[in-house]
Design goal:
4-stranded antiparallel beta sheet, 10 strands, about 30% strand, globular, ABC_transporter-like_CS, translocase
Length: about 230
Amino acid sequence: MKIIETTNISKRYIMGEEVIDALKSISISVNKGEYVAFMGPSGSGKSTLMNIVGCLDTPTSGQYILNEQDVSKMSDDALATVRNKEIGFVFQTFNLLPRQSSLENVALPLIYAGYSKADRIEKAMLALKGVGLENRAGHKPNELSGGQRQRVAIARALVNDPSILLADEPTGNLDSKTSYEIMDLFDQLHSKGNTIVMVTHEDDIAQYAHRILRLRDGLVESDKINPDVRKAK
Ligand code: ADP
Ligand code: ADP
């Protein structure tokens, strides 16, 4: 089943006199359960594509169907509703609330989703368990290592059971040992059926994905199954 389907999407930025075609004509599809890396050099359009795929922005032209919904021309409000339901974001900088515990950080998306407090705690604990941090529920971000912080962020991204885990340079702030731990966690999440889209400029990190899509100058340069998937364990 297709989760992501874009047809000839483009994105044009106009800055004064300058016209930048960040994406020219991108047609891609991602099935449920796939683990894909979006790669490419700086300026190739990765962030622009991720913002569109993640419903943070809409394309200038073309169509984007996300989980059977046409989100290409949605209003910002409608887009936000789809985004909160369908997308779990993970960032390079973790973006955790510093004064809140792991449990509270993970439970946050459930407040917006309207769950009762008891349900929020139960679901957040389950999500923490899923990333191996049930024994760190009461810790605040500054009481956790970098890898643990990223695992809390991953639990938060997954707590609402999104269609896609969208990870933007998820190991960008981590040392190589901790990066492997996060890639091992992604392997486990992929095995459990999660759909993962990871944006990275690092070749060795992209090698953990089962499919690698390379962008260059706003176009898809290649889109291939990765024959030598690297395993973190
Ligand atoms: P990448 O993530 O691969 O580095 P980006 O998607 O950030 O690439 O950028 C693609 C192109 O679009 C670049 O030329 C960049 O300068 C331009 N660009 C990105 N975002 C904006 C913006 N908000 N306004 C104007 N130009 C932008
Ligand atoms: P790592 O070796 O994984 O980078 P650390 O050496 O930073 O982790 O921390 C070891 C353990 O101690 C971690 O599991 C973390 O939860 C806990 N810890 C680290 N700093 C603090 C702190 N300031 N207060 C409470 N617990 C902490």
